[in-house]
Amino acid sequence: NTLIELSKAMPKTELHLHIEGTFEPEQMFAIAQRNNVELKYSTVEALKAAYQFTNLQDFLDLYYQGMSVLLHEVDFYDLTMAYLEKVHSENVVHVEIFFDPQGHLSRGVAFDVQIKGIHNALQDAEKKWGMTSKLIMSFLRHLSEESAFETLELAKPYLAWIDGVGLDSSEVGHPPEKFLRVFESSKSLGLKVTAHAGEEGPPDYVWQAIDQVGVERIDHGNRALEDDKLIQTIKQRNLTLTVCPLSNLKLCVVNDMKDHPIKQMLALGLHATVNSDDPAYFGGYMNDNYTSLIRNTNISKEELFQLAKNGITGSWMAEDTKAMHL
Ligand code: ADE
Ligand code: ZN
Predict the structure, then answer these.
(1) Low-confidence ranges of the chain (pLDDT < 70)
(2) Fewest CB within a 10 Å sphere: which of 115, 245, 283, 285?
(3) Cα–Cα distance between 230 and 204 in angstroms, integer?
(4) Smallest-distance ligand from the CA of 219
(5) Contact 175, 205 (CB under 8 A)
(6) What pLDDT is attached to residue 114?
(7) For residue 282, how many other CB atoms are within 10 A of its CB?
(8) How, if at all, do strands 164-168 and 271-274 pair?
(9) How far apart are the first and last CA of the chain?
(10) Is 45 a catalytic residue?
(11) pLDDT tens, position by position, 190-232
(12) What 8-state DSSP symbol labels residue 237?
């Protein structure tokens, strides 16, 4: 299939990727063993067999369990480097990755341990391959505003390494407005702002993200399509949607890849991009997401190019760097 070959060969960016969601079972077992941590599953196969989700929470329960074997700086380095090597081989030239500090702080793993491991891997990827990156610290929305503020405080010595803040974890019941003040403080520190919205949550959560929080991007945004006025507003403000096709399928946000709305988003003039979210859990990295769209929808070459281009323009690269990639 020439479109598949083309999508593999295109230079791509990844704008929606949770580093803890790149934890492949084999690597998880290896790190568990060297750290003397017991996993709930006794074999790689048993763990993989558990990757059957009916909604976001099903997945999150396993995701937080999986990350619990990460204890030392080298663990964060190895996890990040394995991901970067993988996507380098897929012609990804720029990544903007989330990490979930609270998922590690709660287990006694210090902020500096986490960020040093991740940052050093990002730096090494740039030295080795010229792959550029941004790092986004994500607040866990099922936790309190106070906990998010504590996390922001811990991040202050490392602001030179952090480009923005995000909002993830269990969406329904935890609207963006719960974190308005944390986002305001983050912005005043010079951080960019994005949020998961409209993955499972209603269009109103997307409205809150764009009108109250003032996000520069929307992570997922699928349910924005239920509200015509919202669609027009996202379009007018030129906000990028970081869409995650295989994630949407695995978490039952869509029932069939044939029904995936990404072509509809493009047709509406929305700035959609392709991303892998948590590739180790959802059955594929960047190229697998494109391949699945090509196999299951009648997506055209022009649409594929548009998606890749949107990934450049919607990134947080400097404008002159974007121009170099286009
Ligand atoms: N954490 C990791 N992946 C996530 C997703 N897709 N939605 C919300 N929180 C997440
Ligand atoms: Zn996500």
Answers:
(1) none
(2) 283
(3) 9
(4) 2
(5) yes
(6) 99
(7) 23
(8) unpaired
(9) 25
(10) no
(11) 999 999 999 999 999 999 999 999 999 999 999 999 999 999 9
(12) T
